[in-house]
Amino acid sequence: MEKSMEKRYTLSILVQNNAGVLRRVASLFARRNYNIESLAVGETEDEAVSRITVVTVGDEYIVEQITSQVAKLTEVYRVEIMEPANTVFREMMFIKVKTGKNNRAEIIEVANIFRARVIDVATTSLVFEITGDAKKLKAFLELMAPFHIIEIVRTGTAAIQRGDNRFLNRPVLATNRGG
What we know:
Blueprint: E1 6-16, H1 21-31, E2 38-43, E3 49-59, H2 60-71, E4 76-81, E5 87-98, H3 104-113, E6 117-121, E7 125-132, H4 134-144, E8 149-154, E9 158-161
């Protein structure tokens, strides 16, 4: 039997907005020794419901197993593997870059190309806010590296389906309750 190829998966999970739910979901990954590359959590349009977005790399079989196990948790309403062609992905990054009077304009010019916003100005540094997909953020980091990056803070990936689909109206996986 041929081993399946590893690839990047983004899971979107709607859960009850209760203490401990995130820990229970994340522990399913840990128990299978599966790495979480990115994790974003926040309330949805319904304050009683949170959306957990998890990005991981692995093979299809393991991701389907984890998805099935997550769907069995009583606090989980929905879980779905987000298909890249039908999904918008974004993350946000703050990046602090060392500056001097000789290169400040050049750094801002590069940032403008990426639509990064200056959110803090100090004598020897600038802080930018940038949003986009992982490729855009990586490209921005590569162009900022020669200027000396002091600090980086990134959110996890957020994902939403394109078009008129609404996640709560999608079919329930496994034994989900509610929604």
